[in-house]
Amino acid sequence: MASKNSGTNRALVPGAKQGLNRLKTEVASEVGFSDYESIDKGNLSSRQNGSVGGEMVKRMIESYEQGL
Fold first, then answer.
1. Residue 5 — very low, low, confident or very high, per pLDDT cuts 50/70/90?
2. What phi and psi values does residue 38 have, to the nearest 5 degrees?
3. What is this structure's pTM?
4. At 9, is the pLDDT very low, low, confident or very high (cuts 50, 70, 90)?
């Protein structure tokens, strides 16, 4: 059964969206995209977009594990 808020993304932590955008920009820059925010992501391959997202998840997991 779908929840009432199905299809909407809500930030549970204030400022989380800005932090994720900073991380995305930092990771994209290190992967080789100098101006990732203004790039049309539709013109990038799934592998290129996935490399940014995958590295973000990897860093978030490492950060969490260090805090344990």
1. low
2. -100, 0
3. 0.73
4. confident
pLDDT tens readout for residues 30-49:
988 888 889 898 998 999 98
Alpha-carbon distance of 67 to 49, in angstroms, equals 28
- Residue spans of the domains in the chain: they are 16-67
Is the Cβ–Cβ distance between 23 and 56 less than 8 Å?
yes
DSSP letter, residue 37? G
Query: For residue 39, what is the DSSP state?
Result: S
**Count of alpha carbons within 13 angstroms of residue 30, beta-carbon side:** 13
Structure tokens at 66: 């260090």
Q: Which of 59, 63, 66 is nearest to 27 (CA)?
A: 59
d(CA 40, CA 50): 14
- What is the pLDDT at residue 29? 94
